Each structure stands twice: as C-alpha cells, then as structure tokens.
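Q: Could you fold this chain for me?
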Amino acid sequence: MNSEFTDRQSQGSGSAAAAVSDTAAADRVVGLPARRSPRVLAMIPSGEVYDHDCVRWYDHRDIQQHIGSYHNIGDAFVFDSSLKLLRFDTVRHLNIRTADAADIDRYNAEFDFCFLRGSNYLHAEMDWENAIPVLEQLKMPILAFGIGAQAPAKGRLQLTDATRRVLAIISDKSASIGVRGSFTAEVLNNLGIKNVRVIGCPTLFRNNDPDLRIDLPPLEQVRQIGFTLRREVSRDYAQDIDCYLALQRRTMLALAARFDMTIMAQGEVEEKKLLWGTAPQRREAIHSLVNQRWFDATDDPLLQLYQANLFYSDVVADYEALVRRRDLVLGYRLHGNLMALANGVPSIYFTYDSRTVEFAETFGIPSFDVFGGDDFVLEDFWEQSRFERFNQLYQRGYGELRSFLDENAIDHQLHHQPPRAQQRRRM
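A: Sure. Below is the predicted structure, expressed as structure tokens.
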C-alpha cells in the first residue's frame, strides 16, 4: 500500500448501508496535489468526450460501423453525467488492457485521480482484463462512482477473485466507495469492505439541482410520453422472459392508444437498422423481430408504431433534449428513466431484476413489478403522494453524493447550500 493512503477498512462504518460518518471520513481523506483544475483518468469510459464534459458514442457519424453491434448508450449517460458533476481540466482514458510501465509512470506523473464509471460490475461474469496490476501501481485516489451489484434470478451472487481484488484496491485507495444502493453496500460489507456510501447513480444528479422535485400535472394534461424500451435481457436476471416481453408489448400498445408515445431505444441492433439502415438492413431487422416473436407479423401494429415513433441516438445530449419535451417517461431502462427524472419529468420504473429494484427502492421511485401478475395501469401511479418520497430521498441523495466527493477530496460542482434555501433565509 502506498504511504499516502491510510488503512480504510479498519475505520469504516459497521453497517454496509450506512454512510461513512463525516468525522471518520475526515480522518482518512486522500488529498489531491495542489492544482486548481485536476487532470482525471476515466476507467472503463463509455464514449468519446467533446466540449469538455459531453459524451457521444465513438465515431458516432459512421453509422454503418456500429449498426450491427449492440452497445448500451445508457452507459454513456453515466459517463456524461459523471463529468458534469466534476471540476477538471482534462479527462483521459485509463488503459487497463495494455498499459505498460511507461504508461503507468505517465499516469502517476500527470493525473490527480482516477474514477471508475458507475455500472453493473459486481456479477459472476465481469472481466477486469489487466486492471489489477495497473490499479496496484497507481499512486492516486481511485473513485468508484456509483457501482452496482447484480443478483442472479436464482441462487446466490458469486464474485470472481479478480472482482474481490479490484474492490479491495479501490477501497484502499479511497476514503469511501460510492455504490448504487443498499444491496450493493451489503455485498461489499460481506467482503469486509466497510468504507461505503450509498450515492445512487450520477445520471440522477447530472443537472446539479439540489432542489429538484417531481410535481405531477393532471393526467388529462399529459400528451407526449416516452417509453424506454429494453428487449434484450438475460435469463440469469429476468425470471420469465416470455412474460417480460409480452407485458412490454401490451403496455406499449396500450399507452400508444392513449398518448403520443415515442419508443426510446438504447442500442438494440434491429431498432438501429430500422432507423438508419439500408433497405436490405431494414427488411432484415423486421424479419429478425418477427422470428423473435416481438412482431406478430409484418402488419403488426407495434411495427407501425416503430415506423412512426422510434427514437435512438448515439449522442447523450439528444436523449436529454427528447425527455425534456415529454410529459412522462416510463419503462424498462434504468438510465433512460433516470434521464427524465434528472430533468424534472415524472418517471415510473418497470422492475424486473435486483438492479432496477435496488435503484427504485433507494430513491423511492414509483415502480411496477413486471412479474407481479397484473397489467400496468397508469392511474394507479398518478398520485403526487407516490412521488413525494422520491422528492425527499432525492434531496438526501444529493447531500450524500456531495459528502462522498468531499470526503474523497474530489473537486466537484455540487452546491454546499441549496440556492433556494439561501434565498428563503434572506427574505
């Protein structure tokens, strides 16, 4: 262990879900070198950075390069949101695949801290490549920025030795590890990692608004809605895929009969081909979706809805612009729904695995159980009281995120005093 880092694990909270106390955190803050604008390494980024803190997919204008492969643009939401919350001069990619001794020496000489983009890393299939020797040699804080665990639909969560070692290194080189929710905190606690703070996901806080709240308009005023689509799902995490898909189809068609609904894809290959493909690629996509029984036939009303109201973009800002024009966003995508909430747009989660349940519970987001046996009824969720818990937990979460960055001595944009509260006291 590098001499500038203290022993984190012996000083952590006894409860995995509990936040690191301000007093304990102050005793183990990792100091940054004296520099006004830190230089940052991003570990496992997702997309290319432009205009300082904006993210889009790599070579996003070369549509044919990516049209046949799936990438989840929601990961780029998290990367983009993380950058918008930090103060920094430059961000560069930390190479965990082929970094050599010269690369590591350069990282240590030129950069102030490294952050691991929040994502679903704690599961049995995670491949960390060459991360362990690289992280062991870094002489800087390593910030885990909202990481999460994924429990399988059946059996216990199993983690590889590599995952355990990576978590131990990050714990040792940070004042606290930022996790998605209480389930993930408990997973780390069971590994003996106590310096944990529940911060949710940076996407929720991307607009840096400590006073954000959701106030429902009358349902009869709702016109434009977005449905966050997710067709691809593993049987390891969704207990009944046929039910999962059938309910999604029924819900989309029912909502489209009532509202002007945009279907918001996040990287599925067939959807990209339908939007951007050549004529043969579009025919191929329709044929594939009929074979997958997503479309009943080529005259399926869902196909007609796709042809009129399907949206996808490889640029995060395009999603944000879309959700700002919606009266409601709901559906199966964790980050697509979060983008709406971050912009003050009501959202309802369709929960189907430990990841979506954990986040909805952590922030009190109204949620519908995909496997509960009922069809979705919007009126059941259109009550302001259902969103007041989110409004309260959002403000607490904003404070937790700010404390997390403070205790790790990371330069950030979050306010230390909500502006509206300051104004009220002056009146």
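A (continued): The longest helix spans residues 384-407.
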